[in-house]
Amino acid sequence: MEETEQLAQLIIQSKKVVVFTGAGISTESGIPDFRSPGGIWSRYDPEDFTIQKFLSGPAARKTIWKMSIEGGLLTEAKPNLAHYAIAELYQLGKLDCVITQNIDNLHQKAGVPGDRVFELHGNMEWVVCLSCHRRFPMPEVLRKIKEGVEVPDCPDCKGILKPDAVFFGEALPQETLREAIRRAQNCDPFIVIGSTLVIYPAAYIPTYAREAGAKLAIVNLTPTPFDRYAEVIIRGKAGEIMSKVMEKVRLS
Ligand code: APR
User: Fold this and answer.
1) Same structural domain for residues 93 and 210?
2) What is the CATH number of the domain that holds 37?
3) Which of 8, 57, 170, 210 has its CB surrounded by the most CB atoms within 10 Å?
4) pTM
5) pLDDT digits over 21-32, tens only?
């Protein structure tokens, strides 16, 4: 049976689909991923995105804010066909949740309710003060930077402002991680879209699903270390693949 038909069948037979996404689902929205040729880590050094570096002083923070804006991480990107296909799974009552490594908020923009999106690496929509913990909408802080404030600090307590994304060296949000694992252990199928599955602890989650008996499906342009465990592997672009899959699900 053709792979998109196979994946459609897994979805049709399911009541609780969990979708796990990485940066590859957002490249068709114009946001670069990290490890494809020309990706973020071919232009910037991941070492500059550690929490230690960010806290080391205003100069490091100035560089990180500048890169975040230049690196297109903060663009006004729009959801693409793959995001809308997942939102349709939710509308059909098939989607239990999305577990995402992405910080671009595109699943929510495509129509998946916030309480069904588990953001393991945080979100660039908010900025948090590391001293008084007040949160500010990212656009408000971006405006200040564009007005020439090179290193924005908290307007209330002058504390360090940090994007609410998880930097290398930082712990993942524990409650989010715990709930994501619980959902992965109570779903079938578990569908991975657009991730190299090389960054831990996020990359453990497909294993929790598989060990709990879920069938694994992987939609990705390039091979991943989990391909050998997958029931279905579809090589190609997420937007057209997931649109094709949803056409078949709709017909069922
Ligand atoms: N359709 C399908 N797959 C795609 C597409 C596309 N249009 N574009 C890219 N891909 C695939 C790439 O081939 C690659 O295997 O998506 C994957 C993206 O992998 P990464 O760039 O490693 O992104 P991700 O897996 O999300 O990285 C995990 O690493 O740097 C950290 O915190 C960052 O959350 C990120 C984490």
Assistant:
1) yes
2) 3.30.1600.10
3) 8
4) 0.95
5) 999 999 999 998
